Amino acid sequence: MRFFVITALATLLASTASAETAPKVTYIQAGALLATPGEAPRGNSTIIIRGTKIAEIRDGFVQPEAGAALVDLRSQFVLPGLIDMHVHFYSSGYPLQSRLSFANKDKADQFVDAEVHARQTLDAGFTTVRDLGGDPRGIRALRDAVARGDVEGPTIVNAGEMISVTAGHGDANGLREDIAHAERQETTAICNGADDCRRATRDQIFMGAEVIKFAASGGVGSNIAGGLEAQMTYDEMKAIVDTAHAFGRKATAHAHGKSGIDTALRAGVDSIEHGSYIDDETVALFKKTGAYLVPTRLAFENVIRQGRAGERPRASVDKAEQVALVVAESHKRAVKGGVKIAFGTDSGVGPHGINAQEFALLTQVGMTPAAAIRAATMDAATLLGRADRLGTIAPGKDADIIAVAGSPLEDVKRLEHVGFVMHQGVVHKIGDKRTAFPAD
Description:
- The chain is an alpha/beta fold.
- The chain has 15 helices and 16 strands.
- It has helices spanning 2-21, 95-100, 107-123, 136-148, 177-186, 194-206, 234-246, 258-266, 280-289, 297-308, 314-324, 327-336, 357-363, 369-375, 378-384; strands spanning 25-33, 45-50, 53-59, 69-80, 82-87, 126-131, 155-158, 211-215, 250-255, 271-274, 292-294, 340-341, 401-404, 420-423, 426-430, 433-437.
- β8 (211-215), α7 (234-246) and β9 (250-255) form a beta-alpha-beta unit.
- α6 (194-206) packs parallel to α7, α8 (258-266) packs parallel to α9 (280-289) and α10 crosses α11.
- The longest helix is centred in the N-terminal third of the chain and has 20 residues, at 2-21.
- The chain starts with a helix and ends with a strand.
């Protein structure tokens, strides 16, 4: 009898532990399902999620198994979580406000701001981002906190600081000399010459960077004259790209002027951010190397608006107005020429949470809504090197899922009003409410 009691107790404890560790199960009933962007959407469907992964997709509205949660999206258009390949969570998107609060905020305050920006981005339906420039330790901590589920935000693929040459777009230019020198004491991302740029790349990797970003050219946003052409040499760019690849990282180049874009492409970069001056030769280089263009059209809109409102310094305004004359034609040329496009906004230059406004801007340069959505899902996932986990709704993929009212294939602006967000199997938002559904 004693043996029976002990055995029964052990069985009960084992079953209780098993129940506690069993993954949560959620059934999503979808009225329309764009499981694979670029293909036709499915009709009534049910997505079954176990834990953080998509387990199964069935036709029709399937009733949930015992103990599973049900999410009713039968009137909604469901698609994969969106990916933004260019954000800055450590920047507010309000340059004048940032300058006014500069003396009152330290890194602790900036981390809290970054956490808020991450939550705003997830609210907007973006379940994965590349953060391409911010405090290396802080963004790494935020990345890991999101991954653990301690804070709300999208999956973060972080670059740490942007690597730059002295006086380049990533240097502390435009600041008072004493402040600029103080900032330089804290960074290891400034380099000069190929060997020094290898060192700078390794320093970013040492501090946790999962992707490497460098300033190949001048920048619109920096308060320094000198135009938008190449600021790094080929040897410097090649050293950065090769070192990143040797450590299993991809490299992306901030590049506006043709000389900066072309040199970075010849150096083997994986993607170009912005791409303001693109001609037929540049299109051919993109096609030859297989690199992606991340157009960040929303950033151009924000910088021009801020400049005309007096929120940016004169050097930045002049460059923004110069770029405004050519950038749309450059991006049209890239789209027409078949350059691979990945979605990115440069949020942090402008406000966070309005990322989806980029979709309409992409259609203005020749992309169809279907192609723009694919750029923010499958193509972005491929550039990240995570197509095995992200970009489609399929068994085995991460349960990153969003929904909108009506088909964005007919009106891409519907993506500006995401009503449902699931990230890693947890419902973050449903309707107008943010939630931790299903409840613990």
